[in-house]
């Protein structure tokens, strides 16, 4: 089983667009266009596989730094979801999902990722993993979720068929003892 992470950074953008002379503010999420590996060409949050000895929280922070150059304090990461992806009835990947509204630095591209701030209302679900439209909107609203997503058709996971899912919302997500 692969253990992996995703990290969704959120900010409020004052667009300055006037609606009846009121300044409109818009929440934005930092997505990446993945340049290689699993999910290449699709949008996702920064993230990736845990390295040996690393906690999920440390992994989410490292991957966000490596892929887009933002620095996040561990205390500012909020656990938002735990997602299990099965492939042909076996657990393929367990993914820890975090969100944060506090970070330092400006997003910059890397070999793995092209970052893009996207209005939360305009997330390009048609260019993402098929299951994301089921859980990411709630996560971006601040909810928590535990989900299981079944894929069939053999490796690689991103070419398999998404066949069924189960979601439990607004759960308390326990942090592991080493994932403080
Ligand atoms: N949003 C979303 N992300 C997913 C799904 N399934 C899935 O594995 N992921 C994530 C978990 C990981 O963050 C990422 C895959 O890990 P990765 O980016 O390290 O994979 P890779 O093959 O590119 O590995 P590497 O070469 O960088 O080592 O994709 C899904 O259905 N939706």
Automatic annotation (TrEMBL):
Record PROSITE patterns: NUDIX, NUDIX_BOX
Main location: cytoplasm
Keywords recorded for this protein, A-Z: Cytoplasm, Hydrolase, Magnesium, Metal-binding, RNA-binding
Gene Ontology terms for molecular function: 8-oxo-7,8-dihydroguanosine triphosphate pyrophosphatase activity; dATP diphosphatase activity; metal ion binding; RNA binding
Coiled-coil intervals: none
Classification via InterPro entries: 8ODP, Nudix_hydrolase, NUDIX_hydrolase-like_dom_sf, NUDIX_hydrolase_CS, NUDIX_hydrolase_dom
Needed co-factor(s): Mg(2+)
Function: Oxidized purine nucleoside triphosphate hydrolase which is a prominent sanitizer of the oxidized nucleotide pool. Catalyzes the hydrolysis of 2-oxo-dATP (2-hydroxy-dATP) into 2-oxo-dAMP. Also has a significant hydrolase activity toward 2-oxo-ATP, 8-oxo-dGTP and 8-oxo-dATP. Through the hydrolysis of oxidized purine nucleoside triphosphates, prevents their incorporation into DNA and the subsequent transversions A:T to C:G and G:C to T:A. Also catalyzes the hydrolysis of methylated purine nucleoside triphosphate preventing their integration into DNA.
Protein name: Oxidized purine nucleoside triphosphate hydrolase
Organism: Natrialba swarupiae
């Amino acid at each position: 089983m692969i253990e992996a992470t995703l990290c969704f950074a959120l900010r409020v953008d004052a667009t300055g667009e006037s609606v009846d002379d009121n300044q409109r503010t818009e929440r934005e999420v930092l997505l990446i266009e993945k340049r290689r590996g699993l999910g290449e060409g699709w949008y996702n949050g920064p993230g990736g596989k845990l390295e040996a000895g690393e906690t999920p929280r440390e992994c989410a922070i490292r991957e966000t730094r490596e892929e887009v150059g933002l620095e996040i304090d561990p205390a500012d990461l909020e656990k938002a979801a735990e997602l299990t992806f099965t492939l042909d009835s076996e657990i393929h990947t367990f993914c820890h999902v975090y969100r944060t509204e506090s970070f330092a630095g400006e997003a910059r591209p890397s070999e793995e990722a092209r970052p893009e701030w996207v209005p939360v209302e305009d997330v390009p679900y048609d260019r993402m993993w098929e299951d994301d439209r089921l859980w990411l909107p709630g996560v971006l609203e601040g909810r928590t979720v535990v989900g299981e997503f079944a894929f069939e058709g053999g490796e690689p996971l991103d070419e398999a068929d998404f066949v069924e899912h189960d979601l439990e919302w607004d759960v308390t997500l326990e942090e592991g003892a080493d994932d403080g």
